[in-house]
Amino acid sequence: MRGLCDDGELEMMNSRARDDEHRQRRQLRSDGEADGEGEAERGSRGCRGRGRGATARLTIWRELRPAGDYRAVESEAGRSWQESELGEMRKMRSISCLTMLPLISAISDRDFIAQDICFKNTAGASKGQVVALRVDVGFVAFYRCAIDGYQDTLYARYGQQFYQECNISGTISFIFGDASAVFQNFMIYAKLLMQKQCNIFTAQGRESESEATCFSMQNCSILPWHELAASNGLVKTYLGRPWRNF
Which domain holds residue 186? Predict the structure, then answer.
C-alpha cells in the first residue's frame, strides 16, 4: 500500500472533491440553496440569508477551500502557527485551529462531515503524544479520509461518531477516547516504534460501568505500515487496552 497523503493521493482527493463539488453545486442551485455564487457569494452572507429556522445542510465552498485545491501544509519546528501558511489562511477566516501543545485538527461542532481529507501529525514516534485529529462531539462522519500519526493519532473524545472507508496509522493507543464510534471498512496500519515499545490499536476511556460507549470495528483490515513491514523485526501488538476504568 502507498503511504498516506503523497502527491498522487492529494491529486486524487482534488479530483474527487471537484467532481463532488460540481455535482452538489448543481443540486444546491436546483434546491435554491446558497452555492458560493450570486447573492450568497460570501459564506457569512449565505448563512444570514437562511434564517434561524433553517434545518437543511449548507455547503460553503469558497470559505472552506480558498485556494481551490487541497494542499499538504508543513510547519517548521519552533515556528508559531500564526507565522505559517495556516496562519495566513486563518486571516481569510477559512479555518479554525485549536492546540494541545502540538498543532492539531479539532472538531467541536456536531453535524460535521469530512470527505477525502488527510489529517496528519508528523512529529514522529519519539515525540510522545501526537494527536492528528480530535473529535469532541457527536453526530459527525468521516468518509474516505486519512488520519496519520504516531501515538494517540485519533482522539475520539465524546459523542456518536462514524468513520467509513478511512485509513488510520499510528503506534500506541492511536484510536482512543470515550466516544461511541463505529469504524467501517477501515484500513488500520501499525507503524514502527521506538525500542521496547509495543503497538496498541485502541484505548477506550469509559469512566463508569453504566456508560454505553464503545468502539465498534466492522470489516476492518489490520496491516503493518511499510517501515514496520520492512524492518523484519518482531513487535508486540495488541488490539486494545482500557484507558480509563472500563
Answer: 96-245
Write the CATH number for 241.
2.160.20.10
Cα dihedral sign, 106-82-171-168: positive
Give the pLDDT band of residue 117 (cuts 50, 70, 90): confident
The count of structural domains within the chain is: 1
Quick one: which H or E segment has residue 192?
none
In Å, how far are 109, 110, 146, 165, 191 from 2, measured between CA atoms?
32, 32, 12, 16, 14
- Residues forming a β-bridge with 163: 142, 183
Q: What is the pLDDT of residues 148-203, one digit of tens each?
A: 999 999 999 999 999 999 999 999 999 999 999 999 999 999 998 888 889 999 99
Considering only CA atoms, which of 226, 229, 234, 222 is closest in space to residue 198?
234
